[in-house]
Design goal:
Length: about 650
């Protein structure tokens, strides 16, 4: 069992689970109208005229901003319908995740029978043909990722601290949306997204009537699909973070022109019946089939998995005049691994079962990040994307498939340990332009490569930068904004990284020599505005421990994620270190798990020892139910130990 289960005991008269539905049909700067529908279960034969509901709407501070009282009648079909006006509403968005609550009490005469709290947000959603997706009237591009529900070394069991850590990491990258691929989300994820400001595209099914797997959902589709989809929507339709429903992923039915479009309409109709306020999509990876058999035309939003070069043709044919990248990129890389020469490759395999972190390798059906960005940035009808994937996950070690010991994905922008790969900073430079990004790759510790060509890439939100090796300029590079999707689609341009030159700064001919690489970034006026250095590392000297949170709750569930680094005397990461690190925890906590992000590592997550992968790993410490000091100690052969003190309160 990997989700929390609750037993709810009700009175004979009660509001059922998921029995309220809050919408905001009118939203202006001065006021918002809130509609609240509340279902009531009562004993057979009870007089409906005896029931009334009293509701208070409260703002984020708990202040009452609207009230209402309504009586039920025999003609109301056991449904209270209330309307409220909220003055000067604060709107929910990723930047301002403001929440309201509706506190309802149901009375039979003067006897209180039930109480129910509904949390909701005030916001508007609109899809405008040819113009895009608008949140609260503001054009918004989806800068999203697809995530499996698992939490790396913690497995599939839900943990609130781990979920919120993932959201924090993604938001810092500039990510504004998550696709729950390919199953229904945990309530803890949805609640965290409500509170922290992360849009959700909630997905329901990975299989319909046609089989993907011998024992898949197709066996129970006819009996369960409406029940499951209805329950999903009723559970989450009050959550403002959810902005779109996704009814399927790459279902084989898309190839069946007789069934696929009809099943799509049927499932979308259920969504519209239960929640007419949100658009519906699905992830389709057969663009030619679904465009020509009308399956794509049925959807509110046509969602395409991969093949962005098909977008213009799809846009011309589809009546919605909107294209969503429901699953994109599938670029592969391993943190801290760099392969030479630096060339673009698909399905490339190496003896070490890794992929290059120069971010130039992808799958046979997929592409590099810029191949998606360029379409959505330059076309209003491109409403954004959901990258496969935000975090690495267990399984699908493409391109190695069943090549043992590969057993964990390489797709993630962030590795299984929750440590950002270089690609994280590439996305951050494009998605989070309000914050400075200045990232250099590769590392600069290459014994044996002296004098050999070792390209240097810089990921930055600034337009230009200059690289120096040991004080000698390697030249200045500027992002080439003349590059378009159309003038960079030929094979020569693809091989020459023409699209990448619009978004990355690359020095392809630099040669390695030990010492210092310095980058100076320039703004659009040519002024030097930022700089950064990386250094050749010396011998491994000590262990560095840095927690994501130094203070956690003494509830027996809270977690602190500790980044573990093997560094030299000067504090430089030793990028080729593979030391075995052993851990001990004393005080009011325990060692919960560890991960190093190596997709070939067979070390056990729960054992308090693990080798660092390219100098780094993550150790997870869990609180007990008693407050106090938690002391984590890390030791490794030939290294000075690391010690970290956490507080549990």
């Amino acid at each position: 069992m990997y989700r929390n289960v609750h037993l709810v005991i009700n009175e004979d008269t009660h509001i059922p689970a998921w029995g309220t539905y809050a919408t905001t049909p009118v939203v202006t700067d001065k006021y918002a109208k809130v509609s609240l529908k509340t279902s009531l279960v009562s004993p057979e034969g009870a007089n409906k005229d005896n029931y009334r509901i009293v509701t208070q709407i409260k703002d984020k501070n708990g202040k009452v901003v609207a009230t209402g009282e309504n009586k039920l009648s025999v003609f109301d079909n056991a449904l209270f319908e209330q309307e409220f006006a909220v003055a000067n509403p604060e709107l929910w968005s990723p930047d301002t995740p403001v929440l309201y609550t509706a506190e309802s009490k149901v009375y039979e005469g003067n006897t209180l029978k039930d109480e129910y709290t509904t949390r909701f947000g005030i916001r508007t959603l609109e899809i405008v043909p040819g113009k895009g997706f608008f949140l609260n009237g503001k054009l918004t591009k989806f800068k999203g990722v697809c995530n499996h529900h698992d939490l790396g070394p913690l497995g599939g069991a839900v943990n609130d601290a781990a979920i919120r850590r993932q959201i924090r990491i993604l938001k810092d990258m500039g990510c504004n949306a998550i696709r729950t691929s390919h199953n229904m989300p945990a309530p803890e994820l949805v609640e965290a997204c409500d509170e922290m400001g992360m849009m959700l595209m909630v997905e329901s099914f990975d299989e319909w009537k046609s089989a993907k797997m011998a024992n898949g959902y197709h066996k129970i589709f006819d009996e369960w699909v409406e029940k499951d989809l209805t329950n999903l929507i009723r559970h989450y339709r009050n959550n403002p973070s959810i902005v779109m429903w996704c009814i399927g992923n790459e279902v084989p039915d898309q190839w069946n022109g007789n069934n696929g479009p009809k099943l799509s309409r049927m499932l979308q109709d259920i969504c519209h019946r239960e929640d007419p306020t949100r658009p519906v999509t699905q992830g389709m990876d057969a663009p030619d089939a679904v465009v020509n058999n009308n399956m794509a035309a049925v959807m509110d939003v046509a969602g395409f998995n991969y093949r962005p070069h098909k977008y213009p043709e799809n846009y011309k044919k589809l009546p919605q005049q909107i294209i969503l990248g429901s699953e994109t990129a599938s670029t592969v890389s391993s943190r801290g691994v760099y392969k030479f020469p630096v060339v673009r490759q698909a399905m490339k395999k190496y003896d070490d079962h890794q992929s290059s972190s120069y971010d130039v390798e992808h799958c046979g059906w997929s592409n590099l990040p810029e191949d998606d960005w360029i379409w959505h940035e330059d076309n209003a009808w491109g409403i954004g994307e959901f990258v496969w994937t935000g975090f690495d996950y267990l399984g699908e070690p493409t391109p190695y498939y069943t090549d043992w010991p590969s057993h964990s994905s390489l797709f993630g922008i962030i590795d299984l340990a929750g440590l950002p790969k270089d690609r994280y900073y590439l996305y951050r430079s494009h998605w989070n332009k309000d914050e400075e990004t200045l990232h250099i790759l590769p590392h600069w510790t290459w014994p044996g490569r002296e004098g050999e060509v070792t390209p240097i890439f810089v990921y930055t939100n600034y337009p230009s930068a200059e690289v120096f090796i040991n004080g000698k300029s390697q030249g200045k590079r500027t992002k080439d904004l003349t590059v378009t999707a159309e003038n960079s689609a030929d094979s020569a341009s693809i091989a020459d990284f023409k699209r990448q030159k619009r978004y990355r700064l690359m020095w392809m001919d630099t040669k390695y020599e030990p010492g210092t690489v310095k980058v100076v970034a320039y703004n659009d006026k040519g002024e030097a505005v930022a700089e950064k250095e990386i250094h050749t590392a010396g011998k491994p000297d000590h262990i560095e421990l840095v927690a994501d949170r130094n203070e956690i709750k003494a509830d027996g569930k809270d977690l602190s994620f500790v980044t573990v680094r093997v560094v030299d005397k000067e504090g430089n990461l030793c990028p080729d270190a593979q030391h075995l690190i052993k851990y001990s925890v004393k005080g009011a906590g325990t060692y919960r798990a560890g991960a190093n992000g190596d997709p070939t590592s067979l070390e056990l997550f729960h054992v308090p020892q693990m080798k660092v992968f390219n100098g780094m790993m993550t150790a997870v410490v869990q609180s007990t139910d008693k407050p106090g000091e938690i002391i984590l100690t890390a030791t490794g052969k030939g290294l000075k130990s690391g010690r970290l003190v956490l507080m549990s309160k």
